[in-house]
Hints:
Elements: H1 14-20, H2 36-54, H3 58-66, H4 88-97, E1 118-122, E2 130-134, H5 136-153, E3 160-163, H6 172-183, E4 187-189, H7 199-209, E5 213-215, H8 218-230, E6 242-245, H9 254-263, E7 267-273, E8 277-282, E9 289-291, E10 296-301, E11 315-321, E12 332-338, E13 340-345, E14 351-355, E15 366-368, E16 371-373, H10 379-384, E17 388-399, E18 406-415, H11 422-437, E19 442-446, H12 452-455, E20 456-457, E21 461-462, E22 465-467
Parallel strand pairs: 3-4, 3-5, 5-6, 6-7, 17-22, 18-19
Antiparallel strand pairs: 1-2, 7-8, 8-9, 9-14, 10-11, 11-12, 13-14, 15-16, 17-18, 20-21
Helix pairs in contact: 5-6, 8-9
Amino acid sequence: xxxxxxxxxxxxxxxxxxxxxxxxxxxxxxxxxxxxxxxxxxxxxxxxxxxxxxxxxxxxxxxxxxxxxxxxxxxxxxxxxxxxxxxxxxxxxxxxxxxxxxxxxxxxxxxxxxxxxxxxxxxxxxxxxxxxxxxxxxxxxxxxxxxxxxxxxxxxxxxxxxxxxxxxxxxxxxxxxxxxxxxxxxxxxxxxxxxxxxxxxxxxxxxxxxxxxxxxxxxxxxxxxxxxxxxxxxxxxxxxxxxxxxxxxxxxxxxxxxxxxxxxxxxxxxxxxxxxxxxxxxxxxxxxxxxxxxxxxxxxxxxxxxxxxxxxxxxxxxxxxxxxxxxxxxxxxxxxxxxxxxxxxxxxxxxxxxxxxxxxxxxxxxxxxxxxxxxxxxxxxxxxxxxxxxxxxxxxxxxxxxxxxxxxxxxxxxxxxxxxxxxxxxxxxxxxxxxxxxxxxxxxxxxxxxxxxxxxxxxxxxxxxxxxxx
Length: 470
């Protein structure tokens, strides 16, 4: 029997790939510094290539034809608004109509084995997770995107880096590893989540092996600091230069300030997604996040109408991948709330449009007495108060019956220790949350560790909304 194997090492023209999607340090002297006109031309060329490919994909052909589009109607980047937006619910329908991988690809299961492919998943809090196929371009570009952020934030070849995300069906840990191992010349230490390697052991590794910096979500950086304090471990004895992290809606920087005080080093905020990768990253000046504009075209749209919003206004982030063909991702409403600002140059010379702090999820909005409330907006007030552990969950439920039925929300907050006066903390939190949310919410103070079973979603995600409106 004669057959061929699609060797990964031969799957790409690597010199062309590096020229097309420059990793560090080349990024800072090439696409990272393009003029507005040159960047527009690059984005338009890649966008039109992706649109042409998508016409051969059943998912897009069906949706675009239903919206009255024909081939040839989109010939410029400015025509992007003619294309209908889709979201994760539409992807779920695609999976249901053509299981198990959906009809948003140009090929089906019979093509497996003709190219290197990897399955990663997103979602799955309830039911089966949503699978996404990655080809070498999609896989390696996500590594390059992240490597650019590492370099900008201070990483250099030879750094020893601890990764606290588990390499699993979720792809954040893989992307982190790929960026270090393939595109930075750093040495990854893949300890994974606290379930894989105990937190105290990670701190011991950091001391013994001279960890230079960490890849960790903000909540876990705080957890490590807590473990260090409980065990009399001095974090400042470590050689930590910085933290690469995802801080969530830390609008006023209280959460970041606490983490930096505990560790004695900068903590950088970043923003990425399962399908597209690291969309934006902070520079050393930490004034907004630079968008990886050669790989992603970003729009901010009105949550209700879907119409594009000008710079400076909050809305849903709609992303178009400029590199992915497997699958194409064109006008994907991520339902993450952000603000975008115009092109600006960083201290290191990167020029790009920027994104704000992550401001919450549009699909987790709760309407309380006429006011839109986002559970993640509670983080600022809670992490600011030293009497809390920073852990909380918003429990939404109905009160009353019939026409008198209304939504109410209880914010359950962990106190830092049992020595904290729960009555005084409850009063302080009610006042602080009212100031931030603009509406009064109920507050319940609970003991340390009481919320873990509700807030932890798998190894690397945190839940802040428990919806009992059923």
